[in-house]
Specification:
The protein is of the alpha/beta class. It has four helices and four strands. Strands 1-2-3-4 form a four-stranded parallel sheet, sandwiched between helices.
Length: 109
């Protein structure tokens, strides 16, 4: 999944819906490229933290995340913990090649 420009509440609700559809069939590794993400709607982040289920994911890999993206991702994970949910493993990759190495490691375990 690649994000460009700002992420709106509608973008978050669409992403949660897609992840729900896939994750209810089988847990998966979500790779999201945030290199060109410019802004993120706080209500959208709240929505994602309250509606994404950790069971849907083997892990989430953020490609090209800057400090603000890492803080947002970790914030969503923290809310999951506060809600009593098992947090989703998070990984941060500088580029696609590094993300592929992480996926390979996850698949081998």
């Amino acid at each position: 999944m690649t994000h460009q420009g700002p992420l709106s509440l509608e973008d978050y609700t669409w992403t949660v819906k897609l992840c729900r559809e896939l994750g209810q069939q089988q847990a998966f590794i979500l790779v999201t490229d945030v290199t060109e993400l410019t802004a993120s709607d706080p209500e959208g982040q709240r929505y994602a933290s309250e509606h994404m289920e950790p069971e849907w994911f083997v892990a989430i890999i953020y490609v090209g995340a800057r400090l603000i993206h890492k803080a947002g991702a970790k914030g969503i994970r923290f809310v999951q913990q506060l809600l009593g949910r098992k947090p989703t493993p998070l990984y941060f990759a500088a580029n696609e090649a590094e993300a592929r190495r992480i996926i390979s490691q996850l698949r081998s375990t």
